[in-house]
Amino acid sequence: MSKLVLDLYPFFKVYEDGHVDRLLGSTIVPPSLDDPETHVQSKDVVYCPQSNLSSRLYLPKSTPPNQKLPLLVYFHGGGFCIETAFSPTYHNYLNKLVSEANIAVVSVDYRRAPEHPLPAAYDDSWTALKWVASHSNGDGPEEWLNLHANLDHVFLAGDSAGANIAHFIGMRFGKEKLGGINVFGIVLIHPYFGGKEAIGDEGKILEMKSKFDALWLFTYPGVSGLDDPVINPGFDSNLSKLGCRKLLVIVAEKDMLKFRGWDYYEKVKESGWDGCVEIMEAKEEEHVFHLIKPSCDNAVEMMKKMVDFLNQAN
Prior knowledge:
Blueprint: E1 4-8, E2 12-15, E3 20-22, E4 40-48, E5 53-60, E6 69-75, H1 88-101, E7 104-108, H2 120-133, H3 143-148, E8 149-159, H4 161-176, E9 183-189, H5 206-219, E10 246-252, H6 258-270, E11 276-282, H7 289-292, H8 297-310
Parallel strand pairs: 6-7, 6-8, 8-9, 9-10, 10-11
Antiparallel strand pairs: 1-2, 2-3, 4-5, 5-7
Helix pairs in contact: 2-4
């Protein structure tokens, strides 16, 4: 049997021969044209034929013809290695969010490490945003977006590694100004950021920090290190160019990544970025608790905060 080289139980294990044993996040569910609980419709659409990559689109079933809705482009979490846009976890959560917020969603599926090391996920996510922007004149390849997506009111969001991706895409958008689309706001849920030096209480949990550090170096073998701006935005001299007007950072009290979330919040404020940033901390909660127990009081409060954020008019 091949030698175990990286043990990130209960998520996945990697062996010397390159085999990945994904212990979570492999289950998928089909889309539905009428979810029985939320009455949200969904379907899967290819956004990158070259790599056969799809996104799952969501739309309230009651949307009148030609009504434009805010559009959320969502990036799933999973340490860049597990989960997909088609998992029951994300499908159920986004159905609920679409129903509560009355928005359209493009949930992006991207190539995962280690078979496709970073920056593959970043490249795929940018390709997905360009695909969204191709609908700006109402003649793109997907009718739902042509008819119902308000591309002047686009949001990016993600959880954990997906929040890292959302930040990356927000930075690239701020520097390149992709035409045909306006990124109004970004939501980062329990963002997966890191750094060489321990901050906050990370010094008390160095064994856990070392696992997150090892995961980052494993998923992005060509990266400059633990203080690369992609994983440690505080080292990004261009942080003030983040390409949105509003930013919401969400952290959880018992999540070791909360120190990075708070640090990111402070660094953005200090960067000279001229937008509005706010932060929300859920007390007594763990990492991505809202996906594990979406009906708990803190998850309901978090959902309300996101709904309010996604429905901002200005």
